Structure formats: structure tokens, C-alpha cells
Amino acid sequence: MKRKSKSPLSKLGEFGLIDRIQNRQAFASKSVVRGIGDDCAVYRTSPGRFQVITTDALVENVHFIRKSHPPELLGRKTLAVSLSDLAAMGAKPILAVLALGVPRTLDLKFLDRFFAGFHGMCREFSVELAGGDTVRSPKEFWVSLTLVGDVPAKRFFTRSGAKAGHVLMVTGTLGDSALGLKLLSGKTGTPPISQKEKSFLMQRHFDPEPRIDFSRKIAASSIRVSSMIDVSDGLVQDLGHLCHMSGKGADLDGAAVPRSKQFEKVIKNKNLDEFPLCFEGGEDYELLFTTPPEDVKKIITVAKKVGLPVSEIGKITRHPGRIRLLQENESPKHLKPTSGYNHFS
Prior knowledge:
The chain is α+β, with helices and mostly antiparallel strands.
């Protein structure tokens, strides 16, 4: 009976893979005392600051399709989704711990390309990969990232401080990622769209940009932000989380919700319903937040300095859990805050 030949990954082995990852490190944090190689990472904390920590997992055939998601961009996205959580708190990222589930037959080139993107993102946002774990996965490739950062003890953002009368604002544009995913699935029919528009929308899905710079500049200022959340599960659902935690409601101005020109053109050309994409589609990783009306201009000024569009899209109301969509010449439409991405639906 002929023996199965070992795959390149099998020959390399778990510890060889760890060495390979460590040797490609792109950033070393001054806060990290001991990183990869020990049982635990050791890092310094600073007086007057609180530690923040978040975890996200990306699983093949749930969050991404391996054959269609460029490995470099998957590596970037692995860090980006957790950086977006830190952005929602106004936090500075410090270190990451990464667990990998790797099928035995996975091409080593895929992992090299994945880590090229991941380490590039670490360099861009000053994050050190300080440890993790590698395991064999029976079939799917998966990653689980834990990201640690810190915030000033007296200045960080939460979901729970929105007040009636405060203005609801959002960074960037919404719906691009969901539309990019729809285009990737090939379920948009005819007519075809230009390669330029397709590339933009798919890039927004594959390679989201966490709004760390904007949130840290707001946190370092005296601008009042009463609540903040990142838009990962869709505008309506994440607004529902914010309202629930704050014990308030919201009136959403449908026309003011920002769409990119590429999004609007594809929606029009293909006669698509924009609502499930722009209002319920997930993975935009923009920041949704509330502020007193008198601070809106200050926020717009900060956004301009970092080259980021920001929009006023509604108001917080005193009616707990009530989220209404206001459209011109139409009666207010009550929205279900549970609409959006749900892993177990």
C-alpha cells in the first residue's frame, strides 16, 4: 500500500510554521516585554489608562470563500475587523494574539500571502503579534484574533450614553461591502457593470478600513460624543444595539444615509432594492455615533483633517427601542432593530 506523501505544511510542522510567522514580524511594540515563544505574552500598562480587549473570528464558508478572497486581503481583514471595535471605543491598539485553524492540505503559499497582508496591517496600525495558537482543522481554514489596546481612563466611548435630541452621525458610506459581496456571488443579473465600479465595491468588502485615526483624534479632543458603535452587522441592527444600551430610540433620515456614487450607479443600473444592502447589509466597519447638536461642526472639521466624510443621518429620541425611518412624502416606517446579520438565523 502506497503511503500518502507529506504536504509542505506537514513537513514544516506546527513549530516551523510559528517560526515562519515570527520571522516575518513587521512591527515591535515598546509595550510588549515578551511576545511569541513564551506561554503568555507580557506587556506594560500605563498609569491613567484602561486596557481594552476584543475578539473576532473569521471562518471559511461563513465569513469568506477561500477561493475568491485574496489571501493578502483576508490577512488584512482579520486585523481590520478587530481594529474597528477598538475604533468604536476611541482606543489605541497595542498587541494581537492570533489562533489559526489550518487544514493539513492548505497550500503554504496561501499562508505566506495571508501573513504578508496581516503583517502589513500590523505595521500600518502599530500592532505587534505577540502570540497565539495553531491547530489542525479538519476542513475549513479559520482564524480567531484577540486584540488588546488602551484608552485614557477618563475618556473612552461606549454604546450606552446616547441622549434624546443628540444628532446621529456616521462615517464613510454604507452598503458598499454588502453590494460587493452580492456582486461576488454573481446574483445581480444583467446588465453588466464597469470593472472600475466592481473593483471599488469588492475592495470595500475584501479590505475594510478601520476608522482608528478619526476616533483617536475625537477622543483626544474636547468634542462630546455620547455613544459610539462600529457598523459590522448593518446600520439598523447596530443602531438598535446603541439604542438598547442607551434606553433610547432614533429617527433615521433615509435620504441622508450616505451611499457611494458607485453604489448608487450599480443599484440604479441593475434595478436592485437598496434597503437590504444599505440599511441591513453588514461589514461596512464605519462608526455610528451620537453627539450634541452644537458639536457637529467640530466633528466635521476633524473628519476633514483625516480625509474622511461624515454625515448627519438622524436624531436620538426619548422612545426606548423605537427606530423609525423617515422618508420624504411617506409615513414614518418602524424598523426592526433585529434586522441585519445574524449567525444563527
